[in-house]
Amino acid sequence: MTKVLYPGSFDPITKGHMNIVEQASELFDEVVIAVLQNKSKSLGFFTLEERLEIIKELYKDHENIKVVQGSGAAVDLALLYECKNIIRGLRGITDYDQEVQLAMTNREISDNKVNTILLFADKEYQFISSSMVREVFGLEKDISRYVDPLVKEKMLMKRMKN
Which superfamily, per CATH, for 3-161? Predict the structure, then answer.
């Protein structure tokens, strides 16, 4: 069985992220989505637990997609879940340099046990980022074209609570 790890903060998970998951699920027997807290970013919109719950709900009917919570190095999670590969999504050329550096670092710190595979999101999702979704949502504009209806609903519910 070939397994791949897809790590990210997914705050919120976007249609771009979901497009990468869809592509990966066609290439690998199992996709392990690792929901992480990015220490270099602000707290964001959803808590780690809320993001995990949302993504599990989105993929509850997909037998080859597993959703886990993680911390630490992505390569350590990859090895823990027996994944020889990590996938990363590219929105465009602006992500490339950073992703190549990350891929080389991950390969090195895993003693060449984990490889990184870069996938491009389909063109209609190239410009979407979680931070852009949060910004548009903060301006009280429609985010339907960027996120799944479940994500939009959860964001609206959270806004009403706050």
Answer: HUPs (3.40.50.620)
Catalytic status, residue 17: yes
Is the four-CA dihedral 139, 53, 146, 134 of positive or negative sign? Answer: positive
The encoded tokens of residue 86 equal 């990590």
Whether residue 42 is predicted with pLDDT greater than 70 in this model: the reply is no
Q: Is 91 one of the catalytic residues?
A: yes
Known catalytic residue at 41: yes
Tens of pLDDT, residue by residue over 117-154, are 999 999 999 899 999 999 999 999 999 999 999 999 99
Provide the pLDDT for residue 90: 87
* Residue boundaries of the structural domains of the chain: 3-161
Catalytic residue, candidates 15, 17, 88, 154: 17
